[in-house]
Amino acid sequence: MIETIHARLHRFLRRTLTRPRIDLPLALGLFALATVGLITLYSAGGDNMNLVGGQAGRFVLGGVLLLLISRIPPSTLRSWTPWLYVGSTALLVVVAILGEGRGANRWLNLGVMRFQPSELLKLTMPMMVAWYLHPRQLPPSWKDMAVVGLLIAIPAALIAKQPDLGTALLVTAAGAFALFLSGMAWWRIGLLIGAVGGMIPVGWHFLHQYQRDRVLTLLNPESDPLGNGWHIIQSQIAVGSGGMFGKGWQHSTQSRLDFLPEHTTDFIFAVFSEEFGLIGVIGIMLLYAFIIGRCLWIAMEARDTYSRLLAGAIGMSFFVYVFVNGGMVAGMLPVVGVPMPMISYGGTSAVSLLVGFGVLMSIHANRKMHD
Amino acid sequence: MRIRRSIKDTRGESALFRRRALAGFVLILIGLCVLVGRFQFLQVTRHSEFAIRSTNNSVKPRVIPPARGLIYDRNGVLLADNVPAFRLDVIPDKINDMPALLTELGMVVPLGQDDLDAFRKQLQQSRRFDSVPLKMRLTEDEIDRFAVNRWRFPGVDVVPYLTRRYPLGALFAHVVGYVSRIDADDLDRLDPVRYKGTSHVGRTGIERSYEDVLHGTPGYELDEVNADGRIQQVLETHAPIPGRNLYLSIDARIQKATEAAFDGRPGAAVAIDPRNGQVLAMVSVPTFDPNLFVNGISQADYTGLTNDPAKPLVNRALKGVYPPGSTVKPLLALGGLEYGVRRPGDTVLSTGQFCLPGHGGSNSTGRGGCYRDDTRGGDGTVNMVRAIEKSTNTYFYKLALDLGIDRLSAWMSRFSFGGKTGIDLLGESEGVLPSREWKAKHSKFGWFPGETVIAGIGQGYWAVTPLQLGHAVATLAGHGVPYQPRLVMATKAVAEAQPQPLANPPTGPSLISKASDWDVINEGMRAVITGGTGKGLNDGFPYLIAGKSGTAERFSRTSQAYNTNKNLAYLAARHRAWFEAYTPADDPQIAAAVVLEAGAWGAQDAGPIVRKIFDAWVVFAKGGPPPVDVPLPKPAAPPGNQAAPDEAAPAEDVPANASSSDPASASSSDDGATP
After folding, report:
1. Residue B248 contacts residue B271 (beta carbons within 8 Å)
2. What is the bridge-based pairing of β-strands A108-109 and B219-225?
3. Is A83 exposed, middle or buried (0-12, 13-18, 19+ CB in 10 A)?
4. pLDDT band at B258 (very low <50, low <70, confident <90, very high)
5. What is the CA radius of gyration of chain B?
6. pLDDT at residue A126 above 70?
């Protein structure tokens, strides 16, 4: 018995490496992005090879996970989905009760490492919405939409309460995209957006004072020279001074002279923009658009509703990262902790992104045969 | 028109999805275009402006943390001070190999294990660009040695800061509390902008409850820096607003005398001015040195304090709960009068045993339904005044039963028993006020009449803090006018000439509706001092004292038999000794409650402590003759305010002001009213 499990595991791992079931265009896109990320990080970190090494290590770990997950058929993922969703939501509850972290209760200490359970929801959320809609008549009925709304709201509220608005936004978006792709009628979408818009004044009431300050600071950055206002001003100077062609790699004065805070994490895209200019920005936006487009292509080719919705939602939520981080760096959106995918230096986000792409690879490998 | 079918239309769904995915992709492209448009606006349209700002960018803001407000006693004796010190800060972002740095740095400046532990913990919790303190309170020698080696350690700096010092140390450890290093939990609740550059936060006592007032607002300066980040010149300075100074209503000398009176025996005392709720002394014995906590207490010291069986870290006055015993009797008697259940002249025959109607007889020996008097054979026929004087249990058993538990607990709750007094300290215990509601929450049984009976003598479920009892006796002494106890009576900004008194209006109308009711209770408590358990306490004291002792049992009695063991050590192990009192009885100006955790008898053991508090009060607040044996802290106020013992401090709301002319003369008119 043990022999057979061992043998099967061995076969699984060997096939993972010898016959990887990946989509080459998507893999190349990700590889290009990771390369740009590491190059930018080297410069943003002040030519610090340790940072680059650490980040490369995470990419390797994420890549291995990607390959492993790409071998798991979507039908298996689907059967695990409710458990993964319930498990990750339960972890959120645990964190809410005994979490630890700077400024927010979002970390769970596992002894060897600390991680944010909210990171898991970025994947388990669209999985759960897709799982729920999979056997149902689409477009979804009012009842199904209400259930999906609840599935999204519970973990999102737990994450927002940590308080981690950035991740709550990403998780909500991932679930909402699955619903959008399921064919929810446009007029219903309009109604929902209108309702959410109407709720903004109410939601404002529930924000922490520091979160409100972040939004207000956006309108008048000079009012807050010690906090986010400074971030916004310095980030815009970095971006703007980059001009059309940029100052060149390793020539970001804003980051090198320490004017730009968080210049390897949340604000690394400001360093990129300063060094590579508008041309670089357009180039990387095209790369992002290509990756998202490829994800949606894979989704269209997918075999069943679950795979379609999941692949589409993962691809589309990738856009939210780019838009929110880019908007923040350009002084267009308030400062929330959303990283620039594959470029920002940072713990779990790079790994969890690649895990998500592993799911896409699996969906691609099990696409429907053309008829 | 769409036709709904019961089975899934896979082909239709696929087409629907295709349309949706395309629509989504178009929306995303639009979104990315908006983003690129914004970058185009910054990088092309406004490029020249930002390019200039980037080249000229040589100004960095630097936060200047505010100086924390100082804390004084009512006469200007300094209780919490700021002293300049230096610490070693590390900016993690600039360090490539942290373990190696710590090893090398350790050879230049000795780093203790406690420093390293605290540093590693804070390192995990802070951002890489924020400097993390490594070692607090550097010695001159350490500063010099680091200065010589500084070039070896980029990213490490010696930073000046203000550290807290408590000149009177242990005397105010429980009241003033202490500050300590900001930790992860604090970061959750503190405003990151207000606390930028601040390393310490109020942890306990006044330091904690008045954190907002004491902290102040940080300022900043705009520094011109060169390419290495070194400051070339300061362009602009926006000065921080220091925190407000606090003036406690406590007189450090009365506090000192109170602590000395305990002679190290565990217990607590609270003295309150019944006219305004101001706390005049609050002591918990044993105590500890708060200075140990300011820069991170060593593990050995901390273990020593937490493992000490006497629990010196616990503020017993605020958090210790004890059965109040007979000290509740005057309050219960007052309740009897107020509810019209008793008239002062109503008498009760005390035979040494009281049995619930329908239970036992005079010869009953079992526990069922019968309750003892303290004196074998009883006190005979007693009226209210005599019942208070003799502490006659039978009188109060019967009174409690006639009032009923609901009226009893309703009345007592008005004195804050079973709830918070509202003092300006955090972490008050609520104790237990026996009531049906309380029991329903904590037991599956209903309320038994026998529990009403023992509630009448402060036993059973009763548990009160010394603060609650002090507050209750102060409210009684103040003719029932309820004030929340207050430790801080005024605050003063550095720029202000005069301290601003904090208003503390009564929380409601008097609890006593008939003035004559108060007179009866006062007479009873006077009788305690003239002929009851407190006999002799008034000897040689210039004012009339009224009081009541209480001796509560720590363990439940296992038999009805009278305990014949009169060994004081044995009794002390079994009893909590209480004494509550106020003076002058004709115009109460100070009320106090004292508990000794191991006292044999309330009046004998706790009574003298109350008397010593009153003695000190007479000397320092009323200008009486100087004390004989108590060494007192010297007021550290500037010249002009050297309040000599015969120049009494004001008893009014306004604290002595350091710069104004002698304030004592203004209030001396109400002095010297010796009976």
Report:
1. no
2. unpaired
3. exposed
4. very high
5. 33
6. yes
Residue ranges of the alpha helices (H) in chain A?
2-18, 24-44, 49-70, 74-98, 117-133, 142-160, 165-181, 186-206, 209-219, 228-242, 253-256, 268-301, 305-329, 347-365
Nearest-5° angle of CA B66, CA B71, CA B72?
145
What residue has token string 């060149």? Answer: A248
**Residue of B4 and A127 predicted with greater confidence:** A127
Contacts with B126 from chain A: Cβ below 8 Å: 102
Mean of the per-residue pLDDT values of chain B: 82
Q: What is the pLDDT of residue B226?
A: 66
What separation in angstroms does the CA of B99 have from each of B90, B96, B119, B195, B296?
A: 13, 9, 12, 29, 22
Domain ranges for chain A = 24-71+208-371, 100-206
* Chain B residue with Cα closest to A277: B43
Neighbours of A206 (CB within 10 A): 10
Distances (CA, A) of A288 to A345, B35, B240, B589: 18, 12, 46, 78
The residue whose two tokens read 């259940």 is B341
**Cα B95–chain centre separation:** 42
Cα separation of the two ends of chain A: 41
**Residue B228: predicted pLDDT:** 61
CB atoms A323 and B14 under 8 Å: no
Between chains, do A278 and B187 touch, taking CB under 8 Å as contact? no
Question: Using CB atoms, which residue from A227, A239, A257 is nearest to B42?
Answer: A239
Q: Is A183 on the interface with B (CB under 8 A)?
A: yes
pLDDT for the residue numbered A110? 54
- Cβ of A319 within 8 Å of Cβ of B46? The answer is no
What three-state secondary structure class fits B370? strand
Model confidence, pTM? 0.68
The minimum CA-CA distance between A210 and chain B, rounded to whole Å, is 7
C-alpha to C-alpha distance for B356 and B453, rounded to whole angstroms: 8
Output the pLDDT for position B532. 82
Query: Chain A residues with CB inside 8 Å of B187's CB?
Result: 102-103
- Asked if A331 reaches chain B (Cβ–Cβ under 8 Å), the answer is yes
Given an 8 Å threshold on Cβ–Cβ distance, is B50 in contact with A241? yes
What does the pLDDT look like over B557-587, one tens digit per residue?
444 444 555 566 666 666 788 999 999 999 9
User: Inter-chain contact A330–B35, Cβ cutoff 8 Å?
Assistant: yes
Q: How far is B53 from chain A (nearest CA, A)?
A: 7
> What domains lie within chain B, and their CATH numbers?
69-243 (3.90.1310.10), 252-620 (3.40.710.10)
Instruction: Quote the distance between the C-alpha of residue B198 and its chain's center.
Output: 23
pLDDT digits (tens, 9 = 90+) for B483-511: 999 999 999 998 888 888 988 899 989 99
Instruction: Collect all residues of chain B within an 8 Å Cβ-Cβ radius of residue A242.
Output: 43
Average of per-residue pLDDT across B112-138: 76
Q: Tell me if chain B has a CB within 8 Å of the CB of A284.
A: no
Q: How far is A198 from chain B (nearest CA, A)?
A: 22
For residue A278, which residues of chain B lie inside 8 Å, CB to CB? 36, 39-40, 43-44
Side chain identity, residue A273: S
Tens digit of pLDDT for each residue in B265-288? 999 999 999 999 999 999 998 999
Specify whether the CB–CB gap between B600 and B550 falls below 8 A: no
Contact call for A244 and B125, based on CB within 8 A: no
Check A326 against B39: CB less than 8 A apart.
yes
Kindly list the residues from chain A whose CB atom is less than 8 angstroms away from the CB atom of residue B240: none
* Rounded distance between C-alpha atoms, residue B148 and residue B145, angstroms: 5
Residue-wise pLDDT tens digits, A253-290:
777 777 787 788 888 999 999 999 999 999 999 999 99
Residues of B annotated as catalytic are: 326
pLDDT score of B261: 92
